[in-house]
């Protein structure tokens, strides 16, 4: 494992931070720690982590606010690690830009699998380094997405999902296919992931998200990316 993959742990429980540090370092990740939301936010530009593991129940700032703050200026991958296991908390975190969500108590092996999935995720793209359909343009080399010549900001997960749609342009993709390709095999039952992220993409790339032209819902099956030259 390349040492450049630095993990920032933002969690107020010393035992959890110790467990995560020992576990990650045993796999040759480098680790930085923060015991509060404000400390974590300050550390990000200093340590430049490759991924953040974020607790929601922090002593100074709620983790959802920390997530919102980070997402206002950075697309660093973020995995939520929290005791909050209700569906609404999960959806709210994903809606706020989290790349994945794992509840406590947790399996270290599963956490590693999710981290590896984020680091190795390289969506296959068409042979051309550039894609254009209607007002949507994607430069795969620079990872720049524009709509009507205005650059839009996507999280890494949103970008990977968009690339998956483009790779299978015109084809119906089932919920399971999308979840497996973008989030890995551990998330094949997490359909709420798709609802949230497809909603995100529609807000960002569609003229009218309520009447999408690109991301078409196939009721009871999944979704289809419809090129605008059809």
Report what the structure shows.
The strands form 3 sheets. Strands 2-1-3-4-5 form a 5-stranded parallel sheet, with helices on both faces. The longest helix has 15 residues, at 191-205. Strand 7 (136-139) and strand 8 (144-147) form a beta hairpin. It has 230 residues and is of the alpha/beta class. The protein folds into 2 domains: 6-120, Rossmann fold (3-Layer(aba) Sandwich); 130-225, Winged helix-like DNA-binding domain superfamily/Winged helix DNA-binding domain (Arc Repressor Mutant, subunit A, Orthogonal Bundle). It has 8 helices and 12 strands. The chain has helices spanning 14-26, 37-47, 63-71, 87-95, 108-120, 156-167, 175-183, 191-205; strands at 6-10, 30-34, 51-54, 78-82, 100-103, 130-133, 136-139, 144-147, 150-152, 172-174, 215-218, 222-225. The model has no long low-confidence stretch (mean pLDDT 87). Helix 6 crosses helix 8.
What do the pLDDT scores average to?
87
SSE string: EHEHEHEHEHEEEEHEHHEE
Q: So what's the CATH class of the largest domain?
A: Alpha Beta
Second rung of CATH, namely the architecture of the largest domain: 3-Layer(aba) Sandwich
The CATH topology of the largest domain comes to Rossmann fold
In CATH terms, the superfamily of the largest domain is Response regulator
What low-confidence regions span 5 or more consecutive residues with pLDDT below 50? none
Q: Shape, please?
A: globular
Proportion of strand residues: 15-25%
Radius of gyration from CA coordinates: 18 Å
**What's the count of strands?**
12
Tally of separate domains: 2
- Look at the helices and sheets and give the structural class: alpha/beta
How helix-rich are the residues, as a percent range?
A: 25-40%
State the major sheet.
5 strands, parallel
Distance between the termini: 44 Å
Strand order of the largest sheet: 2-1-3-4-5
Q: How many separate helices?
A: 8
